[in-house]
Amino acid sequence: MTPPALEAIGLSKRFGGVLAVSDISFVVPAHSITALIGPNGAGKTTLFNLITNLTPPTTGTVRCFGELLAGLAPEAIAARGLIRAFQTARVFPGMTVLENVLTGAHTRIRSPAWRQMLWSGAARREEQGLRRRAETLLDLAGLLKLADRPASALPMGAQKLLEIIRALMAAPRLLLLDEPAAGLNDTETAELADMLRAIQDGGITIVVVEHNMSLVMGVADQVIVLDAGSVIATGTPAEIGRNPVVIEAYMGREDA
Amino acid sequence: MLEAVQIVIGGVLQGCIFALLAIGFSLVHRVASAINLAQGAFCIVAALLTATLEQSYDVPVMAGGLVAVAVTGCLAAGLGAAVFVPGLRRLPTSSMFILTAGLLTLLEGGSLVIWGSQSTTLSSFSGERPIHLAGLLVPTQGLWLVGLTLVVTLVQGVLLARTRAGRAFRACAENPLAASLMGIGVGRMQLLSFVLAAAVGALGGVVMGPITSFQFDTGRMYTIFGFIAAVIGGIGSPLGAVAGGLFLGIATQLAAAYVSSLFSNALALVLLLAVLVWRPSGLFSAGPTRRQDVRDEPRVQRAVIRIGRRQGPVLAVIGAVLLFAGVPWALQGSGLMSSAIITLIVFVSVLGLDVLMGYAGQVSLGQAGFMAIGGYTASVLAVQFHLPPLLGTLVGLAISLLAATVMALGTMRLRGLYLAIATLAFGLLVDSLTVGLESLTGGPSGLVGIPPFSVAGFRFDTPLRAYYLMAFVLAVALGLLAGGMRGSFGRALMAIRADPLAAAALGINVPRHKLAVFCISAGLGSISGSLYAFYFQFLSPEMVGTPLSLQMLAMLVVGGEGTLFGPLFGVALLTLLPTLFQPLAQFKTLGSGLLLIVFSLYLPSGIFGVLSGDLRLLGGRLIAPLRVLP
Ligand SMILES: Nc1ncnc2c1ncn2[C@@H]1O[C@H](COP(=O)(O)OP(=O)(O)OP(=O)(O)O)[C@@H](O)[C@H]1O
Ligand SMILES: [Mg+2]
């Protein structure tokens, strides 16, 4: 039996007087797509920050494929195959699109820096392999012709896409996406849904924070609903769709 | 006992001026969240101006002092409006450092042109006779200084707490965007804080003038000690600034009296590092340090300059032919050969700076300190112990790497600003060691009798041989770095510069890369320093002092940072110009300050960027390899 991709155990985070995340526990089965939904300020982004240890949790721990992540630095967590994309795309300005994607492969590079400095053949072959892989991914996303543009010159939607490709370059086991559909139109959202399924078919587990309900209902195997820092419901999209608590807390507030 | 009390009194007086400067740093940091390295220079400008008024025009010292403070205030207003505030609007924190380093260089260079390099002093406000207090001697001027510090502390406390301007200041500090939405002119407040800080510094400089001697470049000592005081007190905390200043003043005076004056500089640096490591929020402030991610850095749109993959080899061949055949053939026997050699030596050091700053985005204001370590270690070993130059160079390298590691580990987890200031303090410490350890270094007059570089009996003692040695070292350094920068190592550095948090989330070990790059930069500086000494067969503290650090900063920015090859333009320009126009030599510092400011504000991609941009516009095929992407 494979251990779950992600297991949150009693995660809490307090910012001064605000309990942004309060005692959250959940399990993400391997190879699934889990959607994390909830109204603005529910604590979704904070939860991602706790999982990747960009902000240390006040209490609680996380297990990734059975391994305890407590106390690991963000780069060590990334090295274990847990990669995230940010809510506002954080591409690296001052680098080209292609370089941004290649940066994603950082943890996979085997040749140490001194070998690169010596222009060693092995390092160059490795680099060429990665470059081909990056170009393939960029091509799939329709960004290949922009490969040599500075990343900051891309429109916002393309930057978010670039960030996902950069994350994929890391060959993650678990991908955390924070509102990837924000700012996309309907066709683009449909393309994104296809892309998420393709990523899932590639054996990668996905946790996605999303406000776009059609996307969530279309791709998620499991939905976790957050409100005011707590989990208020968990289930399949269909179950969540008819859960009165969720409709009350989430949809109700959307109308207001 | 009495003696100790006397020393403490001296320390309190020193501490007062540190406190005044620290108050200025705190003020500017609160409002603009930037560190103004030119702070100390305003003290000296005001003091020098007072001295001129007093000595040449017989203006009474107090009246002259007031005029000088007013003039300095106006000067600060002009520089603030033309440089500092525009910089805040468009530059990230690390570039603000470079910009204010440019201001410091500009003010020092201007003072050098106007007042020359001799030191001077002022006469006391109320007579030279000290007061006897229970067997202790207190200079009357000391009472003026203490009084001024008290008044400034009180006034700024009232100003911040009670007045509308004070509230506006605080609003700017906490949330500039919200403040501007509330109708507070953020730019005006930033300017006001800059001018107020300069005026406080100027007042301090004038009142301190009679109890100390000063010259055009004393300002940077004030900047560094004032800043250390601010950090010790907790930057942004006004009372902490005063406490930090007094603490630092007393501690360094005691150290100077009971150990040696060299030790007092070292103590200041050690105090700074200790506070940064154990209590980054300061000894006297309760508040937590502001976190890196709370205030969003302005996202700078830098031009991305890359050499195309196919054109790279072609350019490399052209460059190699020029370096190994063209330049030596053209310049052999001419007076410019020596300039060419110096250009190559300094370029090696600036390359290190480029990797550190241009790629990884870390600011260093102490690169010449590593050149001094490399240069002095190798030459002392060669002169006094007859060690082969190559071995001495390696020993210097080892010491430099050790120093770099200690400093990087100490400041690593903190914001860029602390590393920058630690490097400046480090540079000044090395300066005082090279001057002070006279039995080893020959002191201010320099170390003579250094042999030329030699390997296995082959001496590089003619200009041509020296040139080829440097060309070889440079080619190796460039080759290694070009290999590193085009692979994952270089990308990781650029990612760290752009967004350290996102870089860490992709698995890049940010502290480790910062350490590596700091060591690379220190190592190149050290090697360059050793070669410098062996080439001149002479080394003096001013050849490898802090002014050189600041000048190399200018060379880097002017040439084009983050491009490896670009800085060569800056190095060549700033090395050749003073040689070609000898009479202008005294304008060298002024000029490099001016260039630093103009380029960091208006031409951030440097000469290299401008050239490659224009070449691209010409659209020729030969020049297409330098692609500038808008
Ligand atoms: N660094 C921080 N300091 C203080 N409070 C914070 C911090 N980060 C988040 N919060 C607070 O925590 C709560 C949860 O914020 P979070 O960004 O996680 O919400 P979210 O669910 O991602 O919302 P959205 O849908 O708008 O992205 C909010 O009340 C927010 O103000
Ligand atoms: Mg969010």
Structure in words:
The complex is a heterodimer of chains A (256) and B (630). By secondary structure, chain A is of the alpha/beta class. Helix content of chain A is 39%, strand content 23%. Chain A has a single domain (6-255), classed as Rossmann fold. Chain A has 10 helices and 10 strands. In chain A, the strands form 2 sheets. Chain A has a 6-stranded mixed β-sheet, with helices on both faces. Chain A has a 4-stranded antiparallel β-sheet with strand order 2-1-4-5, covered by helices on one side. Chain A is globular and about 60 Å long. The model of chain A has no long low-confidence stretch (mean pLDDT 88). Chain B has 2 domains: 2-256, ABC transporter involved in vitamin B12 uptake, BtuC (Orthogonal Bundle), CATH 1.10.3470; 311-616, Orthogonal Bundle (ABC transporter involved in vitamin B12 uptake, BtuC), CATH 1.10.3470. Chain B is built from 25 helices and 8 strands. In chain B, helix 4 packs antiparallel against helix 24 (588-602). The termini of chain B are far apart. The structure holds adenosine-5'-triphosphate (ATP) and magnesium ion. Residues 15, 18, 20, 38, 40-46, 87 of chain A line the site of adenosine-5'-triphosphate (ATP).
Which class of secondary structure composition applies to the elements of chain B?
Answer: mainly alpha
Rg of chain A is 19 Å
- Radius of gyration of chain B (CA) equals 25 Å
Give the name of the CATH architecture of the largest domain in chain B: Orthogonal Bundle
Looking at the structure, the CATH topology of chain A is Rossmann fold
Strand content of chain B: under 5%
Helix percentage range of chain A: 25-40%
Structural class of chain A: alpha/beta
Report strand order across the widest sheet of chain A: 6-7-8-3-9-10
Q: What is the CATH architecture annotation of chain A?
A: 3-Layer(aba) Sandwich
Low-confidence stretches of chain B: 286-299, 617-630
Mean pLDDT level of chain B: 83
What is the global morphology of chain B? globular
Number of helices of chain A: 10
- Describe the largest sheet of chain B: 2 strands, antiparallel
